[in-house]
Amino acid sequence: MKLSIVDQSPIPAGSTAADALNNSIDLARHAEALGYHRYWLAEHHATESFAGSAPEIMIARVAAETSSIRVGSGAVLLPHYAPLKVVEQFRVLHALYPDRIDLGIGRAPGGSGLDAYALRRQRANEVMTDDFGQQLPELLAFLHGLFPEKHAFSNVHVSPAMPGAPEV
User: Which of 8, 61, 80, 149 is 20 to 30 A from 111 via CA?
Assistant: First the structure.
């Protein structure tokens, strides 16, 4: 059986966010030593309880501090981001740590309405629109180069160009 950990980087009473993030790195090392298969890092915004607001950054650090455990986002809250940006971030991680990076995708708002608005500022006119059903297929098409020939994004160059992709 393959075991995984989902880490929200909780901030214990009397600790700091930096302590919580370092605890996550230590936990990942221990998980790898115990033979765990995968280590997921959660995304939470506008909370005093969890320090993990940028899983893609923590994934890079955890992957650098370990050697074999798979590391992934549990999950990137896609409605806050452009699919191309998410794909390029995870392709960079995949280039640095081949066959160890996983891209988990979620659609939760990640906080209050005001928090969601602040996170989606670049999409201010669409902030209340649920376009996850459009974003997810776009993300997968960018990741695997599968846009139809006449699609508006079929000629968009995804960086870094390389074989393979993170698991989704």
Answer: 61
Domain-embedded: residue 149: no
Residues 6+ apart with CB under 8 A from 133: none
The 10s digit of each residue's pLDDT in 9-59 is 999 999 999 999 999 999 999 999 999 999 999 999 999 999 999 999 999
Amino acid letter, 112: S
Q: Which residues pair with 31 in a beta bridge?
A: none
The helix, strand and coil proportions of the chain, stated in percent and rounded to the nearest 5, come to 40, 15, 45
0.85 exceeded by the pTM?
A: yes
Domain that holds residue 98: 4-129
Tell whether 55 is covered by a domain.
yes
**Residue 23 maps to which CATH number?**
3.20.20.30
The reply to whether 44 falls in a domain is yes
